[in-house]
């Protein structure tokens, strides 16, 4: 591995103290990037609103959902709601030790992830109007972590740290696959709520599922939010990850990833 990558790993593992803000919350949703974050947060926010009798979020954008599942630095908007936060954070190395987790008062986590092939394809489709980078060059990634919001090196750092923590504190972390959520969103939303000890009503779950369809969300686009959140990626994954692209991806994954988080990383995700 390159010196630039090792330097960034040390910075993330030992210099990121943002996890200490989590002690103020009843639960934290941690997601890998481009993994359906807006979708699952919006559905859960609608279920919370319906259960607790507060207004629904007007849009599915990050800012519109923050009163329900906010940033760790946010103050409560609705005091009657359980306090939930959202993050893409890579946890500090001290979180590996039980005494440190106890002293920090860390809450239960939902770890929401997606197959890395889908993440990389989605991120490139979403952000290449800014990146303007060739697909193969993007797949090669940047070991220093400075060129891209998310690439194979970011994913490796995220996967490895949360994989380490799952081995040491798995009872505090409910790992969820995006693909399983697409297959059975009611079960996953219910599992998230149970992990956070939140009692969502059946009617609230019905409302969340109805609100979370792509057709319904297309009517809830925030005009002030970032563009291109609802993506319609045209190139199939099997075309994007073939030939040289597949070789690059597999070489990077084999060299960098220590944990799979329940995925077959070397092959296309199951439909």
Descriptive overview:
This protein has 13 helices and four strands. Helix content is 48%, strand content 7%. Helix 7 (152-169) runs parallel beside helix 13. The chain is α/β, with parallel strands linked by helices and 271 residues long. Strands 2-1-3-4 form a four-stranded parallel sheet, with helices on both faces.
Brief descriptors of the model:
271 residues; alpha/beta; 4-stranded parallel beta sheet; 13 helices; 4 strands; 7% strand; globular
Instruction: Give, in order, the helices and strands.
Output: HEHHEHEHHHEHHHHHH
C-alpha geometry: globular
Strand order across the largest sheet:
2-1-3-4
Distance between the termini: 33 Å
Largest sheet: 4 strands, parallel
Whole-angstrom Rg = 18 Å
Layout of helices and strands:
Blueprint lengths: L2 H13 L11 E5 L5 H16 L9 H4 L18 E4 L10 H7 L4 E5 L2 H16 L3 H6 L11 H18 L3 E5 H6 L1 H11 L6 H10 L2 H5 L18 H4 L2 H14 L15
Parallel strand pairs: 1-2, 1-3, 3-4
Short description:
It contains 13 helices and four strands.
């Amino acid at each position: 591995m390159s010196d630039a990558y090792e330097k960034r790993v040390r910075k993330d593992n030992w210099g990121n103290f943002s996890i200490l803000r989590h002690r103020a919350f009843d639960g934290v949703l941690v997601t890998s990037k481009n993994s359906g974050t807006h979708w699952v947060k919006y559905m859960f926010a609608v279920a919370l609103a319906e259960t607790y009798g507060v207004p629904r979020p007007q849009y599915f954008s990050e800012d519109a959902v923050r009163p329900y599942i906010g940033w760790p630095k946010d103050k409560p908007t609705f005091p009657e709601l359980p306090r939930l936060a959202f993050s893409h954070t890579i946890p500090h190395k001290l979180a590996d030790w039980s005494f440190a987790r106890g002293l920090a008062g860390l809450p239960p986590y939902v770890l929401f992830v997606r197959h890395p092939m889908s993440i990389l394809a989605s991120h490139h489709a979403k952000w290449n109007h800014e990146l303007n980078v060739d697909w193969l060059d993007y797949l090669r990634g940047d070991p220093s972590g400075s060129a891209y919001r998310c690439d194979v090196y970011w994913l490796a750092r995220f996967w490895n740290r949360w994989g380490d923590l799952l081995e040491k504190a798995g009872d505090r972390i409910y790992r969820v696959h995006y693909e399983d959520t697409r297959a059975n969103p009611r079960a996953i939303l219910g599992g998230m709520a149970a992990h956070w000890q939140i009692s969502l009503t059946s009617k609230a779950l019905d409302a969340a599922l109805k609100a979370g369809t792509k057709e319904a969300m297309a009517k809830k686009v925030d005009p002030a939010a970032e563009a291109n959140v609802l993506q319609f990626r045209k190139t199939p994954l099997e075309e994007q990850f073939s030939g040289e692209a597949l070789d690059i991806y597999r070489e990077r994954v084999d060299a960098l990833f220590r944990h799979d988080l329940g995925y077959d990383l070397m092959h296309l995700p199951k439909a």
